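Researcher: Here's a chain I'd like modeled. Treat it as a single chain, no partners, no ligands.
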Amino acid sequence: MPGCKTCRCHTDYKMDITMAMQPIVDLRTRQVYAYEALVRGTQGQSAGQVLAQVTEDSKYYFDQLCRTTAIEMMAGLSDTAKLSINFLPNAIYDPQTCLRKTLEAADKFNLAKERIIFEVSEQEHLTDHEKLIDIANTYNKNGFKVALDDFGAGYAGIEVLHRFQPDIIKLDISLINGIAQDPVKQAVVDGICLMARRLGIDLVVEGVETLTDYRCLCDLGVYLMQGYLFAKPVIATLPNPSFPAQPAEHPE
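Model: Modeled as a single isolated chain. Structure tokens:
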């Protein structure tokens, strides 16, 4: 097993970051399902500006810093809310070793592991699927849930899903924007909904911004949603979502 030196946690690279929280809502209960922590700069820099500063040598430190920052913030904001954290699989050398600081932070700030979801983006282009499976299994064994983010945007979504089944799939915004006017998107999302139900995987759709798309997704049976229609991300705050009126036939 590689030691910390191999994992580069000895780096003295510094970066000032904070987190903006955005709710994922559950339309069955009209409550918040979880809050996703989205990285921001302390001077108001966007996620893109922050990520542009991350180098090959600093990606491990950055990944660990995002995790611990999000955990510390959530611990100070809520005693019960679930926290969804993005992570960089390509920054992980050995899953259990690289999970150490996360476990220490969860223990230090008294945030139950059952409240933490780790999101891995399909756009990370992780070609070593065995490594991804090992990471996911290690996280599950340690009490965390795993979500496959941006599903449908990458090059190997179905292949990855065939190799391991995450707890959650998050559909990419490209499949959601304008879905009400796009029969092809509707057919694709309907098929993914069926697949997720059969596999026992929770399905979250991102980028819900309009009432027409919201109603279309409700008709398709989607009940976990995230997007500006409900709430925008807010730094160091858990925003209260607004819920549109339910369509006549709401998801069950």
